[in-house]
Each structure stands twice: as structure tokens, then as C-alpha cells.
Design brief:
By secondary structure, this protein is mainly α. It has two domains: 126 residues, no CATH class; 157 residues. It has 13 helices and no strands. Helix 3 runs antiparallel to helix 7. The longest helix is centred in the middle third of the chain and has 45 residues. The protein is globular and about 75 Å long.
């Protein structure tokens, strides 16, 4: 008869976190929730990006070997300024590429109208009545939509300006914090030191999530480029805005899971400007590729933050319900941080 293993004694259980640790977690959690509640996530992400890039470059360039003083402070300040300038140039370049792609808007409208005219006879009559029959009718429809929703578009423009300003301010703050970390000599108190260390671990979680999602976005963009720039041209099909779509796939792909859905929708929608068959082929290709990428993504994310895909989906679902789109963006970073904190404390 098999004797069951005895329950572990209290002496073998891991020690409970101290009050200081619980207080540190409470402070960090309150700050992170406040950032989402006050809509300051763009500033946080911009600051973390600059802070981590400066830290990586500082170590790679061996600035850490410099003695604390004016020389090291000047070197770190110049490095932070270069990082901020490069990020701003990269953002401006991406925006310029998306605004001035290889296909002009009038030509794209004409192709879209032609595609709608070809598809219209095969659609039910009640649907065809609502579709434009030529480029002029399509322009009129878009103009009416813009006029009707002008207030919404104005609000969207103000929101974009606010987010851009927050990102710029956050990047400057990230550079200043990187400078302060490199030259600070004052020893903080116990609680302040614990919060600083927790913040450093949160920055590490951010780095791991961004690195993992960056690899995923790169792989997704490579597959998309092979399809749009190689496979379709070999079949005699040249999709409008193909290069822009590849860039968009990478940029939007930095947003976990939702990014792929957005980029896929754009690709299928623009495929309709060629024919219904190309749109169906694009949809079949994207479904097949993302079935393969599902296992690859789980492996990449799991190796970086030790989380399964279902864990991230659940975290994103809860955060989206609480904070909307910013919650989706923040969920992987927040979840990676708190899971690692609990794992380090041997609570899970």
C-alpha cells in the first residue's frame, strides 16, 4: 500500500514577503494604475524607451567605466540627447512614409471605385445600392462622412497632439532619469530604495516585453513582405501600397495580438482594390501564417517573460475592460512585472 507524501511543514515553506515588500508593491501598483487612470501611458512608454536605450548604450560604450563627475554626466547627457533625437527622427520618418506612400490617394480611390464596380453585380441588390459606382461618387461619400464626423475628427486630432506631446515629455524625463541614475551619489532611505529597485525591475520587464514583441513584429513583417512583395508579384498581382503595408505591419505589430488583427484587416481591405479573388487569397494566407506564428509567438513571449499566450490574453481582456486601448498596451508589461515579482518572492 502506497503511503501518501506528508504535507510540507511550516519550516519548509518559503518565507513570507516583509511588510516593506508589500508596501513597495502597493506603492508601485498604485502608481501604475494612476498612470492609466490619468492617461499618462504614452509618457511612461516614451520615458522607458529612452531610459532603457541609454542604459544599453551606456553599457555597450563602456561609459560605466568613467568616474562619477562632470565628464560622465556630460557623456550620458549627450547620449540621451542622441537617443531622443534618433527616436524623433524615426517617428517623423515613419509618419512621412505613411502619409506619402508609393501610391497617391486619388489613384487609390480610383482603384477602390473600380474594384467596387466589379464586385457590385455579384452582391445582393440591397447592398449594391449603398456602394459608390465610380471614383467621384466615392470621393463624395468620403467627403460627406468627413463633414458629418468633423467634430470627432477634430477630437482625434487633439488627442494625437496630446499623445505626441506626452511622448516627447516622457522621453525627456527618461533621459533625465538616466542621467540622474548614472551620477547620483546620495543613498536613499529604505522605502525609497525599495521603490527604486522595483522601478528598475519594471524597466527590465518593459525591455523583455518590447524585445519579445519586436521579434514577433519583425517575423510577421518578413512573412508579409514575402507575400506582398514576392509571392503576389510573381503571380502577376501588384498590390497598392505594398511597401507601406509592410511598414505598417511592423509598427502596428508592436501592439500585442491586436496589432496583427489591424494589419490583417488593412491588407485584406486593400486586396479588394484588385479583385475578390486576391482578397480571399490574402485572407487564406494570413490565416495560415498566423496559425504557424501562434506557436512561434508563444515560444518567443514565454522565453522572455515566462508567460503563456492564454495568460496574456486574459490580462489584456481584464485591462481592456478597465482602461480601454491603453490597458491592452500596458497589460503585457504590467503582467510580466508583477508575475516576476511574485515568482522572485516564491509566492507562485
Amino acid at each position: 500500500m502506497e503511503i501518501p507524501n506528508p504535507a510540507p511543514s511550516l519550516s519548509t515553506l518559503p518565507p513570507s514577503p516583509s511588510r516593506r515588500q508589500w508596501l513597495t508593491w502597493a506603492v508601485v501598483a498604485a502608481v501604475l494604475m494612476m498612470i492609466l487612470g490619468l492617461h499618462l501611458l504614452p509618457a511612461l512608454l516614451g520615458g522607458l524607451a529612452v531610459f532603457e536605450l541609454v542604459a544599453v548604450l551606456e553599457k555597450s560604450l563602456r561609459f560605466t567605466a568613467l568616474a562619477p563627475g562632470r565628464t560622465r554626466a556630460l557623456a550620458i547627457a549627450l547620449l540621451a540627447a542622441v537617443v531622443i533625437a534618433l527616436l524623433i527622427l524615426a517617428g517623423m520618418g515613419s509618419a512621412s512614409l505613411l502619409r506619402h506612400g508609393s501610391t497617391a490617394a486619388p489613384a487609390l480611390l480610383t482603384k477602390l471605385a473600380d474594384a467596387l464596380a466589379q464586385i457590385q453585380p455579384s452582391l445582393p441588390a440591397w447592398i449594391g445600392e449603398y456602394l459608390p459606382t465610380n471614383a467621384a461618387a466615392l470621393r463624395d461619400m468620403l467627403g460627406n462622412l468627413l463633414s458629418t464626423h468633423s467634430s470627432s475628427l477634430s477630437s482625434a486630432g487633439r488627442e494625437i497632439g496630446r499623445v505626441t506631446a506626452q511622448i516627447l515629455i516622457g522621453m525627456v524625463l527618461g533621459g533625465l532619469l538616466a542621467l540622474h541614475r548614472s551620477v547620483a551619489t546620495r543613498t536613499p532611505g529604505p522605502l525609497a530604495a525599495a521603490v527604486v529597485h522595483a522601478s528598475a525591475r519594471f524597466a527590465i520587464a518593459f525591455r523583455r516585453v518590447i524585445l519579445a514583441q519586436g521579434w514577433i513584429a519583425l517575423v510577421n513583417a518578413c512573412f508579409t513582405a514575402l507575400y506582398l512583395l514576392v509571392a503576389l508579384p510573381l503571380a502577376g498581382v501588384h498590390l497598392p501600397l505594398a511597401k507601406t503595408l509592410v511598414v505598417l505591419t511592423f509598427i502596428i505589430g508592436l501592439l500585442p495580438i491586436v496589432g496583427n488583427l489591424i494589419s490583417n484587416t488593412l491588407i485584406v481591405a486593400i486586396s479588394f482594390t484588385i479583385s475578390l479573388g486576391v482578397a480571399i487569397a490574402s485572407l487564406v494566407f494570413l490565416i495560415a501564417i498566423h496559425k504557424l506564428e501562434y506557436f512561434l509567438n508563444a515560444k518567443i513571449i514565454g522565453s522572455h517573460i515566462r508567460a503563456q499566450a492564454w495568460e496574456l490574453l486574459l490580462a489584456m481582456l481584464v485591462m481592456e475592460a478597465a482602461f480601454g486601448l491603453p490597458g491592452i498596451v500596458a497589460a503585457p508589461i504590467y503582467y510580466a512585472y508583477f508575475k516576476r515579482e511574485l515568482r522572485n518572492a516564491r509566492l507562485i
